[in-house]
Design brief:
The chain has 176 residues and is an alpha/beta fold. The chain is built from eight helices and six strands, in the order E-H-E-H-H-E-H-E-H-E-H-E-H-H. Strand 4, helix 5 and strand 5 form a beta-alpha-beta unit. It starts with 7 loop residues before the first strand and ends with a helix.
Length: 176
């Protein structure tokens, strides 16, 4: 099954300023999340962010925060009990998700979205945990649970559909 821009929402989980230095390859994860959000904006895909205890962990990194259409503050690890589903645009059943920590908040949120009937794609190169083993085990569990594991480039090219897309050159420049 292909991701379709008109059916997708991009969800970026807890890409927070104070958290990212503790994440393995945190700067790269934040950059990938920013690239995804920029691509989503170019293709009119809504972008939703979450922040875990923002009063303690601070907001999402500025580049992500600026590109989110809405941000859900939360205290549960799983964003769904804190109102995430109510903030998702109606009629879009495909959730493309990235963020941190892969094995905690991102995993629990993705599993709840699957349980709620959404189709979930996890962008592996836009996820991170403090250690790579936790991240890898989480990605495996998500795959076994029905999520599709993809990369930023897979998302971009599937959302564009073809090389004649009016935003092709802009998006190609972002992923090179």
């Amino acid at each position: 099954m292909l991701m379709k821009a008109e059916q997708s929402t991009l969800l970026l989980v807890d890409v927070q300023e104070r958290l990212m230095p503790a994440i393995s390859q945190g700067a790269e994860v934040a950059n990938r999340c920013t690239s995804l959000a920029t691509i989503a904006g170019l293709l009119e895909v809504p972008v939703v962010g979450t922040e875990q205890l923002p009063e303690k962990l601070g907001p999402n990194v500025e580049s992500v925060r600026e590109l989110c259409d809405v941000t859900v503050g939360k205290h549960h690890f799983d964003a769904c009990p804190d109102g995430l589903i109510d903030q998702l645009p109606e009629g879009r059943q495909q959730i493309v998700i990235g963020g941190c920590e892969t094995h905690v908040c991102m995993l629990q949120t993705a599993l709840s979205l699957l349980d709620a009937g959404y189709k979930v794609w996890v962008v592996a190169d836009a996820t991170g945990s403090r250690n790579d083993f936790d991240r890898d085990v989480a990605l495996d569990r998500l795959h076994q649970s029905g999520a599709r594991i993809v990369t930023t480039e897979m998302v971009a090219f599937e959302w564009m559909v073809h090389c004649k897309h009016p935003r092709f050159r802009d998006i190609q420049a972002l992923i090179k």
